[in-house]
Amino acid sequence: MEIKDPNKGNEASINGSGPVGNPPVDEMQEETIRRLKKIGADPAVIGEVTKTVSVGPLEKLLNLARANSLWPLGFGLACCAIEGLMAANMARFDLSRFGYEVMRASPRQADVMIVCGTVTKKAAPFVVRLYEQMAEPKYVIAMGSCAISGGPFVDSYAVVPGVDKLIPVDVYLPGCPPRPDALIHAFLKLKEKIINPEVVKKH
Questions:
Q1: If DSSP states are collapsed to H, E and C, what string results for 81-101?
Q2: Closest Cα partner for 168 from 200, 196, 195, 122?
Q3: CATH number among 3.30.2350.10, 3.40.640.10, 3.40.1280.10, 3.40.50.12280, domain 72-195
Q4: Which of 2, 67, 109, 186 could in theory staple to 173 by disulfide, Cβ–Cβ 3.0 to 4.6 A?
Q5: Binding site, annotated residues
Q6: pTM of the entire structure?
Q7: Which residues are annotated binding-site positions for [4Fe-4S] cluster?
């Protein structure tokens, strides 16, 4: 369907197939257009409204809010917690500009668990207990080679060969230790996963 823009005099497409430069219409805009057509709105009104208003499922809006205000559980198991996690909170890397700086001391107030460092078999029950105490939806970032696969200590009788043997992991962050900006990248990947869960399910 084509809509005449009364201000500019050129035609703009509301289905994403219009002139070059028009962004493709997402699902929420399509839902807005469908509802406006249902009540018999004028095409010019539909074009104006879709520029400023989106109607869609509440879950999509909640996911957008969750993705931009993740509260990490502030605990570390080894050196990655100092060299990566704590450094990311300092002024040079400034994790707070993304809204992720509120480290919680209680798992009941946290959204994301960052497993930093070597998970020993003695520490494993506590990691699982903390994960179980977190409210849904909850996410896990495995930070560093030790958290992902056991790292250089993988052959030790006392080390769990990867935290994903205990709890589900959403983002793997390799490195020994990973740089603080790599942790920021992991948060942004997690944000992408939260906003677009259907894209992740396809892969």
A1: HHHHHHHHCCCCCCHHHHCCC
A2: 200
A3: 3.40.50.12280
A4: 186
A5: 79-80, 146, 176
A6: 0.70
A7: 79-80, 146, 176
Three-class SS state of 50: helix
User: CB-based contacts of 78: which residues, under 8 Å, 6+ apart?
Assistant: 116, 117, 118, 144, 146
Residue 15 has pLDDT above 50, yes or no: no
Where are the chain's structural domains? 35-68, 72-195
* Angstrom distances, CA of residue 90 to CA of 33, 71, 87, 181, 185: 45, 16, 5, 11, 16
* pLDDT above 50 (res 1): no
**Cα distance between residue 149 and residue 131, in whole Å:** 19
Please state the rounded mean pLDDT for residues 32-41.
74
- Burial pattern 46-83, b for ≥16 Cβ within 10 A else e, equals bbbbbeeebeeeeebeebeebbeebbbbbbbbbebbeb
Which are the contacts of 169, defined by CB distance < 8 A and separation ≥ 6?
A: 115, 140, 141, 142, 163
Copy the structure tokens of residue 57. Answer: 């499922």
Q: Where are the alpha helices (DSSP H) in 39-121?
A: 43-52, 58-67, 80, 87-88
Least confident of 13-22, 42-51, 166-175: 13-22
Helix and strand numbers, DSSP H then E, in the chain: 9, 6
